[in-house]
Specification:
Protein name: Glycosyltransferase
Domain Glycosyl transferase family: 218-357
Pfam family, one: Glycos_transf_1
Domain Glycosyltransferase subfamily 4-like N-terminal: 31-123
InterPro entries: Glyco_trans_1, Glyco_trans_4-like_N
Oligomer: single chain
Strand order of the largest sheet: 3-2-1-4-5-6
Order of helices and strands: EHEEHEHEHEHEHEHEHEHEEEHHH
Length: 386
């Protein structure tokens, strides 16, 4: 078992100039992981006295209401029901800003929003990469080609969600990048509160129900074995999606069907209600980190894995990784074996819980956003993985 420390991962330089005004550019605020990132960034920046302008180049979306009343935040969006890929009304508004205002920082969340960011005057321009295929040539319809024409060194302005996304983007671009890692900023329950419970037999997963998220399927077979060890085991699945019917049918045909519960589409309130008194969490990404940050041992999974394999608990992953990052030299374990290890002793369980909380701190909002601002203020990319 190995743990990681981020104490040596950062090397800060003296800021070039303080950041005061920030423009964020994204498509819309329909529910999704990147959209929740936008919400968290806007709320943190506003709470810390930054002036924020959010440009949405398609339309609004249900998450927009979380931002509309926040002080110091300007939202520029044309609620066009036709949902064009790029709203020309907004492009005109962005161009008009060239005469009205220069932003200290313009930050975008994908290739198209990155391209649009060049319409705004900025002292510094950066863009996040949240999908390993964001800059792959296929399916971008000339967006990256246009970026290259406008700014041949555009890739030096990229920040990456984690090292795996960075590595895959390097392969697409064709050269190594020394750019920064900007993980998702998250909030957790209070340090004095623990949702993990060694005596509970409640296993939880949160996430989209899709065939590529194979852990929901192999967990049914694992449950058939776990209830032979302890009939109190239950598995609670929160989420909806195209794989829901397939998953429901598999559960109905399982000997463990009385121990598996599908709770459907979930909200933030559902997470608050669903995580307490949980033995362990199975999954990846934001929900895995949030569970570990509240003291629940989190077992990592990988998409399109039919064998029930894992790199272990969240704290055993490399810095800033949160699942679905198996490399050729990864040491792999059985998900079922990791669950059974947690049963071995309460002391071992508490140790895994503690390690998970420490790992989750890499993603804590203040911790991440303070480093993001220092990165934006530095004359060049200054915090890097070594």
């Amino acid at each position: 078992m190995s743990t990681f420390s981020n104490a040596r991962l950062f090397d800060f330089e003296k800021p070039e100039r303080p950041i005061k005004s920030i423009a964020l550019i994204h498509k819309n605020m329909k529910p999704g992981g990147v959209e929740m990132l936008v919400v968290r960034m806007v709320k943190w920046l506003s709470a810390n006295d930054y002036k924020v302008t959010l440009f949405l180049f398609s339309n609004g979306g249900p998450l927009l209401h979380e931002l509309e009343a926040i002080e110091g935040v300007t939202i520029v969006v044309d609620e066009d029901a036709s949902d064009p890929s790029v709203n020309l009304w907004l492009v005109t508004k962005m161009l008009s800003r060239r005469l009205e205002q220069k932003f200290d920082l313009v930050y975008s969340f994908g290739p198209m929003s990155f391209l649009l960011s060049y319409l705004l005057p900025a002292s510094k321009r950066m863009s996040g990469v949240y999908n390993p295929n964001s800059y792959a040539p296929k399916g971008l319809h000339g967006t990256v080609k246009t970026l290259k024409l406008i700014d041949p060194k555009y890739y030096q302005k990229l920040l990456f969600m984690n090292p795996s996304v960075k590595e895959k983007t390097e392969q697409v671009i064709g050269e190594p990048l020394e750019n920064a890692i900007f993980p998702l900023p998250l909030d957790f329950c209070a340090p004095t509160k623990t949702f993990g419970n060694f005596h509970s037999r409640r296993i939880v997963s949160f996430g989209q129900l899709a065939d590529f998220r194979t852990y929901n399927y192999y967990m049914i077979e694992i449950m058939e074995k776990l209830i032979q060890i302890d009939p109190e085991f239950t598995y609670h699945i929160y989420g909806d999606g195209p794989g829901e019917d397939h998953l429901r049918n598999k559960i109905n045909n399982s000997a463990a069907r009385e121990h598996i519960f599908m709770h459907g589409k979930f909200t933030c309130d559902d997470k608050r209600r669903g995580l307490p008194n949980t033995f362990c969490f199975i999954g990846m990404g934001v929900s895995l980190i949030e569970a570990a940050g509240c003291g629940i041992p989190g077992i990592t999974t990988k998409i399109n894995d039919p064998f029930g394999l894992t790199q272990g608990f969240l704290h055993q992953l490399p810095p800033y990784e949160s699942g679905d990052s198996f490399s050729a030299d990864s040491e792999l374990y059985s998900v079922q074996e990791q669950i059974e290890k947690l049963l071995s002793s309460e002391a071992h369980y508490d140790q895994i819980s503690k390690y998970g909380r420490l790992k989750a701190n890499e993603f804590e909002s203040n911790h991440v956003m303070e480093k993001f601002i220092k990165e934006a203020e530095a004359p060049k990319f200054s915090f890097r993985l070594h």
